[in-house]
Design brief:
Helices cover 41% and strands 16% of the residues. By secondary structure, it is an alpha+beta fold.
Length: 448
């Protein structure tokens, strides 16, 4: 201990250490902290207590990142609207990429400035697509920025599932910084939703992922817009592996698709659409052209995206496949895999059902399914499909119209198309109690 006390580093620290009275006080002044964020490059910022109900589901994960966490700083960085609105995806994606870099840089600068003041702080997760790949197929991100932004008074979620800032509209990207200090005042959630419910996002979405009644089809959006991210990349790799030779590969994948994938791998994954964000007129700084001439706004912003000739990626048998054919004569479909069906665990399979569910394909189906998984993963679950809605519950509830008992590993191989259902039934690795037609009807609701 004596030797340690005499170490040059220890002696220098003691010489410059602030007296207790001069150390940063807690709680921190909210206005000063927010000003620090704006000086670091943020366009707006809100402060959220760790025990805020809006982020209750994330509290354990946040405390795992920083056990002494007391406050979350949510901030937004504006994007250039016209760059996002253009049908030219190269311009839009460049804006997304650079704005994402800006958000990560702002978070880093906020953390740097707080550390200089003697406060513990950390970036709450990279902006952009999730990066904790070792968790796949589980939750790959650290903090969900949208609920934090809503709790921080930076806007509300619109029908398109984007955060709409009251001033900047949905042309923002979000970041979060976690700090150990409490602050003198916390933000209140915004008192109205800036979303106009104009349904322009419904009209612009090439896949029909956003329904007029507010329903959102995650897998449909994911399959097309995120084609060159995780699931689509995995499908592309498997297409390469399944091809007999170069000629066979070219029959499956066009040269432009190969080049597009190369661009994403080289310069950052590119979004295929994000048209819902492009056409949104909400926000004080954004709304003027829409209010001045709604038809003109539709003609100049929405129509070019709707009429753009392009390929829309869809899962076979999905609601999107029929939606494109009905609503977009200038667009063609390509059937692809989205990576959402090849789950690595039964827990992942059950967790993913609401994301993959196609309510249009469930028309007329009213059934209760009892699943019993055995061997490696012993799980019981109830899945009910009724009135084009899906519910998944743990355990067996109610009376089943179809009971499915399956060896867990066999079921996962079946989902990945690595084993034949008929063969699994013959070997009694999968057993049914009820009409097999109900299993076929179930499968139609979850194309991937």
């Amino acid at each position: 201990m004596t030797e340690s006390a005499e170490h040059p580093t220890v002696r220098k620290y003691k010489a410059r250490a602030l007296p207790e009275a001069e150390r940063p006080l807690t709680p921190l002044d909210a206005a000063e902290l927010r000003g620090l964020c704006l000086d670091a490059g943020a366009d707006d910022a809100g402060l959220v207590a760790i025990d805020h109900p809006e982020i209750a589901s994330q509290r354990a994960e946040i405390l795992a990142l920083l056990p002494t966490a007391r406050t979350l700083i949510s901030f937004v960085s504006r994007m250039s609207r016209e760059n996002i609105r253009t049908p030219m995806r190269s311009i839009a994606n460049l804006e997304f990429h650079h704005a994402t870099d800006d958000v990560n840089g702002i978070a880093r600068e906020i953390v740097r400035r707080l550390e200089a003041k003697g406060l513990r702080a950390l970036n709450g997760g990279a902006a952009g697509f999730p990066m904790e790949a070792d968790r796949w197929p589980g939750k790959m991100w650290l903090i969900s920025h949208k609920p934090v932004a809503v709790a921080g008074g930076l806007g509300r979620i619109g029908i398109h599932r984007n955060v709409i800032h009251p001033k900047f509209g949905n042309f923002v990207l979000l970041g979060t910084v976690v700090i150990e200090a409490e602050v003198s005042a916390y933000a209140e959630p915004f008192d109205y939703n800036p979303c106009l419910e104009c349904k322009l996002c419904v009209a612009a979405c090439p896949t029909g992922a956003i329904a007029p009644d507010g329903h959102f089809d995650f897998s449909t959006c994911y399959t097309h817009n995120y084609r060159e991210f995780m699931g689509g990349f995995g499908d592309w790799v498997e297409t390469i592996a399944a091809s007999d030779d170069a000629r066979d590969y070219r029959a499956r994948v066009t040269p432009s698709e190969t080049v597009s994938m190369w661009q994403s791998l080289s310069f950052g994954a590119n979004y295929k659409a994000a048209y819902c964000m492009s056409v949104c007129p909400a926000g004080e700084d954004v709304i003027s052209p829409y209010l001045a001439a709604r038809k003109g706004y539709v003609d100049s912003v929405v129509r070019p995206l709707r009429e753009k000739a392009e390929t829309v990626c869809v899962a076979r048998g999905s609601d999107a496949e029929s939606h494109v054919a009905r609503h977009f004569p200038n667009k063609r479909t390509k059937v692809v895999g989205n990576g959402l069906g090849g789950q690595a665990s039964i827990a992942g399979f059950l967790r993913g059902l609401p994301l993959v569910f196609q309510r249009g394909r469930s028309q007329g189906l009213a059934a209760v399914y009892h699943f019993t998984f055995t061997c490696k993963e012993e799980v019981k679950a109830t899945v009910e499909i009724r009135d084009k809605k899906l519910t998944v519950r743990a355990g067996h509830e109610g009376v089943a119209d179809l009971g499915v008992t399956a060896d867990s590993e066999t079921w996962l191989r079946f989902l990945r198309k690595e084993t034949n259902l008929a063969f699994a039934l013959l070997r009694r690795k999968i057993r049914l109690r009820g009409s097999p037609r109900l299993l076929l009807a179930f499968g139609r609701c979850f194309p991937s």
